[in-house]
Amino acid sequence: MAISPVTNWHDETKLEPLNRVFKFSKMAYGNGYRLHRKNWDKLKTGKFFNPIFEINKLDPKKILLIHAKDDTVVYAKSSKTFSKKLGCKLILLKSGGHLGSDIVMEPAFWKQVKEFFE
After folding, report:
1. Minimal CA–CA distance to 91: which of 107, 75, 113?
2. Would you kindly state where each structural domain of the chain is located, as residue ranges?
3. Which of 10, 29, 85, 98 has the fewest CB atoms nearer than 10 Å to its CB?
4. Rounded to a whole number, what is the largest CA-CA distance in the chain?
5. Are 83 and 8 in contact (CB under 8 A)?
6. Among the listed residues 114, 14, 26, 8, the one whose alpha carbon sits nearest the alpha carbon of residue 64
7. pTM beyond 0.85
8. Dihedral sign, CA of 5, 16, 41, 29?
9. What's the rounded mean pLDDT across residues 73-87?
10. For 3, phi and psi rounded to 5 degrees?
């Protein structure tokens, strides 16, 4: 299960340059993300740690995505494209912004998540 996931780093780079995201992450999270710039820059290739690039190795029955259409941090368009190509389940909300794990605790979502894992 992935909530507001980056499913294609290459698409996200077009919307929010990775240089800017790197600087923000260092400033906002400090040592929460311990990586060197050269490793971060590998994401720009679109082949490193990029789910869409590994799509033929994934089992769609084991993947559930939850995303909100109004997420301005990670755009829902990539999740829609990814779920369509893979054939995995996508719960797409009209609103909610950049969702966190607390969404799972809401009764309507917990029921769907529980059914998915069963």
Report:
1. 113
2. 2-117
3. 29
4. 43
5. no
6. 114
7. no
8. negative
9. 93
10. -110, 125
